[in-house]
Amino acid sequence: MSTSPSLPRRAPWQLACRLRVAALVLATAALAARAGAPAAGGAPCQALPATVARIRAAVAAVGTYNPANRPPMEFSASGFFIDDRGYFLTADHVIVAFEKRKRLSHLRIFMHTLDNRRGIPATVLARMPRYDLALLKAEGDAYPCLEIGDSTKVREGQAIAVMGFPFGFLLGLHPSTTAGIISNVSPIAIPAVNTRHLDAATIDALRHPFDVFQLDAIAYPGNSGGPVFDPVTGRVLGVVNRAFIRKTKEKVFASGISYAIPIHYARKLLEKVPAPDTTDAARPNAPVPKAP
């Protein structure tokens, strides 16, 4: 009579690891399933289509154009205009990537509303690596722009929406929107359990902590730099950020959770921009609240 082979016995620590992995998988699946769910009451969801139609023209892609490259056009991140004279906000780690590839001189802003594959030439005016924010200036003026909200008053559970260009060049110049809530407001870094998880970025974040938003809305690669906005008013509450925050927030595992930098940190960035003249009217006029 044949007997069934005995299953190998597993150590308690192996079972614990398997349970943790299973829990992470289930949590990630739950996040994906909930992405786009409206807040209680349904009002933000009902207002969202009109808000998206109103603000999408001000959201653009960040990339480069060089006829010597193949393909000549590329874009890998998102951003948005904060002033009709061409002031444009995005994530600084996007600029770092172009610098490393020596393509910053070919920097472009690609607007989905324009039939222009060469993009709009842009320059970097100011950067804040600590908050991973960068301010660009596009050539020309009369741009559509977004209104800046007060992210110091954001509450956990508040409805939000995210707009940008997921996966960049792969899905084309078509802005996408996802919706959800602010899951939590928490420090950008947590103390490491093991010293080998400490690096220069984590140590700096622990020494100079600031809060970031965790989002219950999916933001894919390519969404970084795009706006997190109020689904009713369209006011910007944050800047989508994946790679930068995950370096200090998720040292042990990669969760797939989306994050954002609160927009009030842009105040310090705008203060670094030299005014073209001495009049207040010449400065970027986005009403960014002061950081606490």
Report the portion of residues in β strands.
Answer: 25-35%
**Helicity range of the residues?**
10-25%
Query: In CATH, what is the homologous superfamily of the largest domain?
Result: Trypsin-like serine proteases
Distance between the termini: 76 Å
* Name of the CATH first level of the largest domain: Mainly Beta
Calculate Rg over CA atoms: 21 Å
Total beta-strand segments: 12
Which residues sit in consecutive blocks of at least 5 with pLDDT less than 50? 2-8, 11-41, 278-292
Q: Strands of the biggest beta sheet: in what spatial order?
A: 1-2-3-6-5-4
How many independent structural domains?
Answer: 2
Q: List the helices and strands in order.
A: HHEEEHEEEEEHEEEHEH
Average pLDDT, rounded to a whole number, is 79
Provide a concise account of the structure shown:
With 292 residues, this protein is α+β, with helices and mostly antiparallel strands. The chain has six helices and twelve strands. It has two domains: 33-53 and 147-269, Trypsin-like serine proteases (Thrombin, subunit H); 56-146, Thrombin, subunit H (Beta Barrel).
